[in-house]
Each structure stands twice: as C-alpha cells, then as structure tokens.
Predict the 3D structure of the following.
Amino acid sequence: MYTFWKRTVPPPSMLTFDASNRDLCSVKSQQTNTPLQALVLLNDPQIIEASRVLAEKATKKETKVAAQLAYIYLAATGQFTTEKVAEQLLALYHDMEQQVLEEGVLPEAYLGIGEKERSFKEKDTAFTALSLTAHTILNLDLTITRS
Amino acid sequence: MSEKKIIEERSLQLNRRAFLGKTALGIGGIGLASLLGTPYFNTTKNGVITSATPNAGVKGSLGGLHHPAKIKRVIYLFQSGGPSQLELFDYKPMLNKRRGEDLPESIRNGQRLTGMTSGQDKFPLVGSQFNFKQYGNNPAWISDLLPYTAKVADDICVINSMYTEAINHDPAVTFFQTGSQQPGRPSIGSWLSYGLGSENDNLPAFTVLLSRGTGRPNGQPLYTRLWGNGFLHSLHQGVQFRAAKDPVLYLNDPDGMNKATKRNMLDHLAALNDAGYEDYGDPEIKSRIAQYEMAYRMQTSVPDVISTEKEPDYIYKMYGADAKIPGTFAANCLLARRLAEKDVRFIQLYHMGWDQHENLPGAITKQAKDVDQASAALIMDLKQRGLLEDTLVVWGGEFGRTNYSQGLLTDTNYGRDHHPRSFSMYLAGGGIKPGLYGKTDDFGYNIVENPVHVHDFQATMLHLLGIDHEKFTYKHQGRRFRLTDVEGKIVRDILS
C-alpha cells in the first residue's frame, strides 16, 4: 500500500496524526489526541479499505467467526484476545450483522470503498459484519497507540 | 492513613502517560476525574469514576466565576513573526529626522540583541516610510498601511507599551500563549477549556486556524504545542482546522453506512476502549473515547459552521476578496465569526509572515494588506451582531521590531530586527475602553508610560472572562501553576 508524500505536502490524514510537515527539521514529533483523528480513522476510505482487506484475510485463514475475530484483533493490536474481549468482539459482530439485516449498512456501497478488488464473493451479511468489526478494531486505542 | 487512602492520594498525583506503568492494584479508575482536570466523568466524592457523560461537552473545573465576566469568548488574531510597531501604530517622527544616525548607547542601555544584528558596526536609526494620522475620539496614531483598521479606531484600544522577556520567536510566542518561554505549559485556550468548559457541546472549546502571510511567505513556522494542553488533560488541546477548502477532513460517514450503525459501532468501540482502560489505566484512553464522541457530533456541527458560501455579498465585501479563498487570513476571520456565533470559547488565529528582517517596506505593505480589512471587518461584523460586547478580539504578535535598520539602510529600503522592549497590540470588545494606551520614548525604543507586560495582558484577559488569574491554578508535580506564573497585574486603565 503506497501513499504519496510530496516534499512539504504530507498526506493530510497523516498530518492529523502529527506527521512532520518537513518545512524544517523536527527534533521530536508532537503528540496529540484530537477528534480530527477519530474522523480520519472512522471515515477515511483508506482505513475502510484496509478493514475490508483484513477481513478477507481473516476469512481465508479461519472458518469460525470467533477465530476470525481473534485473528483480526491479533493482527491489529499484537495481542491475543482475552475471554472478555472475545465476548465483546462477538457481540459487536452480531450487532453489525443485525445492522446489515436492518439495512443500516448497504454491503455493496460499504464494501465497494477503496480500489483493492475483492478477491472473492463472501456471503454479504457475514462478510460485511466482519469488515465492520475489523473497522472498529482498527479504531481501538490499543491499535493506534504504541505502548 | 489507610492503604486505600494512600493509593488514592498517589493516583491523584499521577498524570497522563505517567499512569501507563500499569498497576496490579486495580486503582485504574480512582481519582481520574480530578486527575484529568475535567468533570467529564461522573465521580463519587473521593474521585471514583461511576460513569462517563459522553453526550456533554467539556465542563469547566471552576465551580463558578470569581467575579462577573465581561466577555464569554476570545478571538485571538495572533500576528506571528513580530509586526513592526513603528510602521503600524507607534508613530515616531524623530526617527525620520535622525535617519541614519547611530542608536545612542544611552537609549539602547545594554539591551541584548539577537545574533542577526549583534555583529553590526552601526545601528542606523530609521523611521517609518509610511505616514500616520490620528483617528478616533481618544486619538490613536494609525499608519496608512491600515486604512480599514483606522475606520474602527473608536472600537479598539491600541497599546503601544507592550513588552516581553523573550527575543526570539519560539520562546516569545510560547510566552504569550502559555505564560512561559519554555514549552510544556498549557496554552491560553486550553486553560479556558479547562476552567470554563465549553458553551457548545458539539464543537471543541478551543479551535485554531492558521494562515500564511504574503509579506514573508516562508516565514516562521508554528508548532502544534503552541495550542497544546501541556499538563492539562488532552481533551483541552486546541483543535486545528486546516487552511483549505475542507477545514475538517472526513466529516461524511462511509458510503452505505447510516447514523444508527455508526452509533452502534461507536458504542462498541467505547466499551472496548474502556476495557483497555481498565487494563492499562492510561487516561489518554478516556480522552480518546471522548474525542470519538466529539468527532461524532462534529460531523453535523462543523459542516454548518464552515459552509460560508451562503454568506451574503455584503459580508464578503466587508472582509475583502480574500475571504472567498479558503485558508487566507480573511477567510479565517469569517470562520472565526461563525465559530464565535456558535459560542466556541477560544478561537485562535495565527497569521505568519511578520518577521521582516529585510526589505521591510515592501513586505509589510503586502502583509498589512493581508490582515487590515478582514481584522476590521471582523470587529464591525461582531458589533453589528451584538457579539462584540461579550467577545474580546486581540490583535498582536510576540514582540516588536528595532528602531534601527538591520542590514543596509538605503533611500528606499531597510529591515528591522526583533525588539522585545516595546511593541504594539490592540484589543477590542467587551469591557475594553477604546483609545490609546502607553507611550514609548521619541526613539520608539523604551517605554516611558504605562508598561504592559505579557503577564499583565494575560491577567487582564482572564479578568474580563471572570477569572482571578491568581486563583486559577492547576497542581502539577507538586506546584500550583498559573497562566501568569507568579506575576501579572490587571491593566485597569484600559477597562471600561
């Protein structure tokens, strides 16, 4: 996955995450925690596309939903799921499934975000729910904070 | 002291990332609210968190104001780089008469210089190339570079006797914004967000807008820590809008997703993050949860604020042609008014490019044109909406410029170095008495009447907001910190 970075014009979403603007050298990067970052992670097509691809990987690796969720969680956070987290993720997954059934999410539109082609046609409801769950996991503080 | 009490006390001392060293004692939630400096979370008397209030904006930590406030919000038009007071507000005809003469040591009186002119053999005095006239009932001298500002002379208080302790940009700007030349303290807007909270649950209490000047397009850079929260909780940091057509990115939900799904997703996200907080006890996680809620609300509130295209023509005429170009100072002034209408507490603009060491006459002409019309328009616009009476508009930079030329003085050209000992700024709005305040000597080098220190300015601003600057403190690492450190006198003479 590539992102273009013109000399002193960093990708705006990276600026939102305190990338240096490279006008001048920066000795230390700044640390911020703003609502603008939430907007990027929730709505930037790049993140949504990444969520979808991550969900695809999970379905290739694992067949059971619980295992798919654990795979995504591990890939994103570098941590194994605890029992509690596994339960929470499953609840999230089922809620997302429900949202798809209630047409709160339109699979064709949502999964169509981004340029990466879908490698296979998974049954839409389940796969959309998994993508939405991956999307949520990519937004976790644990995912985006190095600690 | 019981063990529990000791643990509680200890947790109250810890701050932010320091808290990360996770504890086996399960003290995660204890004392968080006071630790964060925000009652965003509901707590018991001894500080144990019982629940969060995700649908409310930041609440102020001050129970009530110290005295009745004159203003509710501040728009700070920061002129970054150090505008030359001698070309704008501080009229010194003697410098024209004695043009080219060396600055007498009796006037310089040991003042330290920056490395940019300390090596000069001579310090040739130079007066303004631009004419001045007097405007207003309590007349202030205003230069021909600022024709629109001259028209609002009766609404502004020009202070010609500002002084600071810093002589270089970064410490000087940091000093104005945080009360300390060293980085690490909260910016004014963060202090206000912490103390007074937000009047609007759907927008950040502290917003920041940047623009680049034409006077020196590659002028001094600014850093996000200038609008940083310092040791206060990161909920209080300034939220920077981009200087572009879309000031805030990604305001729209992903294709095919409706609000109910988004809401459901956020609830799960908050629950998962909360579980992470229980494990790690990092207050930044709580902040993250709150920022997600703010982001959710900004998705509807921000488009409403930034859609300036419906502003009538006469408004664009007032602010000038630039107001239609996103990211300019004029466009930012118009946005500032719209944010003020939504009761955003502290609206911080920065206009870069005032650092005119050389080719000053040409550069300042362009630079003044960038800001003159829009600054005046903002004041008039606030006034016609009845907002000026409870808003403070601040216009000024981090220091002034020298009365002698940096580099070669020719018939038509000169430059000026940084000068901390005297400079000008102006204030307008609620509680401010318009007119002229303070006086420098005929050389425009030293203050002879009514000096106003940076801390005095800060104390006065807080006073107008109903805050006693000596009582408004935050304890950090064993010390109670103030915006005004251990100084600052309210400038009562300029209050109405």
In short: The radius of gyration of chain B is 24 Å. Chain B has 14 helices and 19 strands.
